[in-house]
C-alpha cells in the first residue's frame, strides 16, 4: 500500500538537495506534486540557488514514478509569488494534503552577530522564517476547508542549538521551531498537523545536486573536505545524514502513520544534538 496514494504534496526548494529527495520519496509513495523553487538569484545570498532547469529535473524524475507534477517558480520571500503558486496548485489538483516548507538559505554567514548587515539579516529571516509563514498563510485556509492536512517545516539542529558565526541562520531556524509549535495549536482542531524536522549535518549527495555543506565551508572560509571531516567528527553515529534520511522523516509526518503527532520536532542528526 503506497503511503501517499491520492495525496497532493506541495514542496518548496524542490530544485535540488533535501527538497528533491522529499519530492522523489513522495512520488515513490503515490503522491501528486506541486514543486516550486526560485529559479534564479536572490540579493544578498552569496551563492547560486536552484535554476528552473534543476526544478524540471526533479519533476521529470518524479513523473518517472507515475506522479502528476505541476512546477511553478516562486520566491518564498514574496507573498504575491506564494499566493499565485497556491492558486495554480489548487486549479490543477483541487486540494493540498501536505505542505513541505523546505526552501532555505545557509548564508550570508561566517561572521560574528554584530557584523551582519541589516540587508543580510533581513534576507535570512525573509527566506528561512517568513518564507514558511507565507506558505502557511496561503495553505492554511485550504486545509481548514478540507478539515485535514499536514505541514512539515524543515528546520535544522540550528533550530535547537547555537552555531558560532551563524547567528542569522540559527535565529531563523529557532523561529521555525516556534512557528511550528504555535501553528500546531492554531490548527489542531481542524485536523491539521504541523511538525518540524531538524536535520543535523547532511552530506552533499551529487545525485541530488547537493550543495549545502559547500555553502557552510565557503561561509567559514575552509575547504569542503575539512568541513566534511568536522561534520563527521561531530555526530555520535560516525556517519552524517543523507537527504533521503530527511525525506523518510518527511514521509512519516506527511502520512497517516503519524496521525497523533503534532507540534513536535523530529531530529534526524545521527546523534549530533544528543550531546
Ligand atoms: N544540508 C544540510 O546540512 C541541512 C541541515 C539542516 C537543515 N537544512 C535545511 O534543509 C533545507 C534544504 O536545504 P538543502 O541542504 O537541500 O540546501 P539547497 O541549497 O540544496 O536547497 C535549498 C533550496 O531552496 C531554494 N531556495 C532558497 N531560497 C529560496 C527562495 N527565496 N524561494 C524559493 N526557493 C528558495 C534553493 O534554490 C534550493 O533549491 C533548508 O531549509 C536548509 O536550511 C539543511
Short description:
It comes from Paenibacillus phyllosphaerae. It holds the Pfam family adh_short_C2. The protein has 275 residues and is an alpha/beta fold.
Structure commentary:
The chain contains eight helices and seven strands; from the N terminus they run βαβαβαβαβαβαααβ. The protein is an alpha/beta fold. The protein has one domain: NAD(P)-binding Rossmann-like Domain (Rossmann fold), CATH 3.40.50.720. It has a seven-stranded parallel beta sheet with strand order 3-2-1-4-5-6-7, sandwiched between helices. α1 packs parallel to α2 (52-63), α4 (118-146) runs parallel beside α5 and α6 (212-220) crosses α7 (224-234). It is globular and about 45 Å long. The model has no long low-confidence stretch (mean pLDDT 97). The structure holds nicotinamide-adenine-dinucleotide.
Highlighted features:
8 helices, 7 strands, 275 residues, Rossmann fold, 14% strand, binds nicotinamide-adenine-dinucleotide, globular, single chain, alpha/beta
